[in-house]
């Protein structure tokens, strides 16, 4: 389900009232970053790629569409294209959550709404009574495990239950900590544990907030067009490899979700709708997940491991670059042999040439990319946590965009305040809920008990890490990695040990085996309307072959003590 930011801006509406630009054919849904869900934001592509960032235009587009049509390609009259209050499209203060009086009367069901409200209040009251029962305090571990399983089921089946997983995650987190406070020796101990967990979680949340805002600023300036413009080939087999490795390196600097959105949007302009384009989109998913696994900032799971000290920058790049490249090269080689890729070339008009980069877009792209790359350097030079470097980069980019767009009222959407309204806040809150939930299980000692059980019954750490990667194809890899970090510490497995590097690789690339296994896959699924079973039949086998080959490559290199020695010669990264 698509969700939209709520804020509307009168000044922006007034600037667009006289716009004659057509809105049809410009809307795509972007799933929410990092979180394995189809919830997300909506963005315009094509002639005016940033207009749908404002709710006024989104509403106006819906009103202008032919009610009998299900396509965004409906032709509109000139009158319907004018976004004026007189046209009935929208008023300056309207919101996407509002409906017309007629729509409201048709959809309003007071009895049903009342039953829903009573059911939710009843469930909350039942939960409050149950938590205060003496059994909960006596059987803390079992109560917390049951609540975590129940909450996680709500997250997995969010589409069926119509509950957003961010809300479920927050309720679960608070409930688990309430149970922990009842079962702890004293409330002061529980508060101290919560304070410690919140400090660790906040580092990740601040890091993601800064990174997502920087990427959004670059994107609003069409900065990624500098990358995509250089892809000109139409040879099917060559395009397969070019798309794969461009995404691979792009995802290493950005995150896998953003890279997927950028590259799938590019594919729409390079290749007409076809089976071949779906395969290219699947290549983007595999490439984005593989590229995000070998750098600390390429995937949220590697970022979590990096921030908490399980992996370091140089050793991660040295140890995981080759396995990640192998996990991509094997599927590409196998796909190159398929009939869809070996078919005739795909010719399409060069739509990219008609799109113009925003003013000073090249400057913003260069600075934004530079501050992202500078984060590991900042950590090595100062010893401060990575989120401080990310916030420094955001501050620099904020001042830069304010300076270069000073006095340009029509370009307010290119500044940071507007970018902050467009980032995936609900995704950040999901992270907050999941990480706090896992922190409560760690504080209660539950994760340590699970680790002891695995140590006693599964002797091979390689098998444990590989299994986590397989499970991440079905279950979101964020709670999996968070739980693993709680189960094992750097005393059991030192920084940059084989176990932690395998966790980073397997959790990052394992999600490619199913389309629902990663945020990149869900984004591709939503943007290209790809069926789960199509991906399972056509792509999953290739992705599994790459996953297995990558693990074999890592183990071979690790046993032979082979890495990329040239990276160790970079002095300012040696300790990061």
UniProtKB/TrEMBL annotation:
Write down what this protein is called: Citrate transporter-like domain-containing protein
Q: Which domain of life is it from?
A: Eukaryota
> Family, per the entry?
Belongs to the NhaD Na(+)/H(+) (TC 2.A.62) antiporter family.
Q: Please state the protein's primary subcellular location.
A: membrane
Task: Indicate whether Transferase appears among the record's keywords.
Answer: no
The record, for Pfam families, names:
CitMHS
Lineage of the species this protein comes from: Eukaryota, Viridiplantae, Streptophyta, Embryophyta, Tracheophyta
Instruction: Provide a GO biological process annotation.
Output: sodium ion transport
- Citrate transporter-like domain: residues covered: 153-485
Compartments it resides in: Membrane
């Amino acid at each position: 389900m698509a969700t939209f930011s709520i804020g509307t801006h009168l000044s922006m509406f007034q600037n667009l009232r006289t716009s004659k630009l057509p809105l049809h054919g410009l809307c795509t849904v972007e799933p929410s970053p990092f979180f394995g869900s189809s919830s997300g934001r909506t963005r315009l592509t094509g002639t005016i790629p940033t207009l749908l960032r404002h709710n006024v235009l989104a509403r106006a587009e819906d009103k202008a569409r032919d009610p009998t049509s299900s396509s965004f390609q409906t032709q509109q009259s000139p009158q319907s294209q004018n976004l004026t209050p007189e046209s009935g499209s929208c008023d300056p203060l309207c919101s996407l959550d509002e409906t017309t009086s007629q729509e409201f009367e048709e959809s309003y069901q007071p009895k049903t709404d009342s039953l829903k409200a009573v059911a939710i209040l009843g469930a909350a009251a039942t939960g409050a009574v149950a938590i205060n029962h003496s059994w909960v305090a006596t059987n803390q571990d079992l109560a917390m495990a049951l609540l975590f399983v129940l909450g996680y089921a709500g997250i997995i089946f969010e589409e069926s239950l119509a509950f957003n997983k961010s809300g479920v995650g927050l309720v679960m987190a608070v409930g688990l900590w309430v149970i922990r406070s009842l079962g702890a020796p004293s409330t002061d101990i529980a508060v101290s544990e919560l304070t410690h967990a919140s400090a660790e979680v906040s580092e990740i949340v601040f890091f993601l907030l800064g990174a997502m805002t920087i990427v959004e600023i670059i994107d609003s300036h069409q900065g990624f067009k500098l990358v995509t413009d250089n892809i000109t080939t139409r040879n099917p087999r060559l395009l397969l490899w070019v798309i794969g490795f461009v995404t691979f390196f792009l995802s290493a600097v950005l995150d896998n979700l953003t890279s997927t959105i950028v590259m799938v949007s590019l594919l729409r302009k390079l290749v007409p709708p076809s089976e071949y384009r779906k395969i290219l989109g699947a290549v983007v998913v595999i490439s984005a997940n593989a590229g995000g696994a070998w750098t600390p900032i390429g995937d949220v799971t590697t970022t979590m491991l990096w921030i908490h000290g399980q992996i370091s920058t140089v050793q991660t790049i040295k140890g995981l670059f080759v396995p990640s490249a192998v996990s991509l090269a094997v599927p590409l080689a196998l796909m190159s042999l398929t009939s869809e890729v070996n078919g005739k070339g795909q010719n399409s008009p060069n739509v990219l040439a008609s799109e113009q980069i925003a003013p000073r877009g090249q400057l913003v792209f260069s600075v934004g990319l530079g501050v992202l790359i500078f984060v590991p350097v900042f950590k090595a030079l100062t010893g401060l946590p990575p989120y401080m470097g990310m916030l420094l980069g955001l501050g620099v980019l904020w001042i830069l965009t304010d300076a270069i767009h000073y006095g340009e009222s029509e370009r307010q959407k290119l500044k940071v305040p507007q970018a902050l309204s467009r980032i995936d806040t609900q995704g950040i809150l999901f992270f907050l809920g999941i990480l706090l939930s896992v922190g409560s299980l760690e504080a209660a000692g539950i994760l340590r008990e699970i680790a002891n059980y695995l140590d006693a019954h599964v002797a091979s750490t390689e098998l444990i890490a590989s299994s986590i990667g397989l499970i991440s194809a079905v279950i979101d890899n964020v709670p999996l990695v968070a739980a693993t970090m709680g189960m094992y510490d750097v005393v059991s497995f030192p920084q940059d040990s084989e176990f932690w590097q395998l966790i980073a690789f397997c959790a990052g690339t394992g999600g490619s085996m199913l389309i629902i296994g990663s945020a990149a896959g869900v984004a591709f699924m939503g943007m290209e309307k790809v069926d789960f079973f199509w991906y399972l039949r056509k792509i999953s086998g290739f992705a599994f072959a790459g996953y297995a080959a990558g693990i074999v490559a890592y183990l071979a290199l690790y046993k032979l003590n082979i890495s990329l020695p040239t990276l160790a010669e970079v002095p300012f990264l040696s300790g990061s």
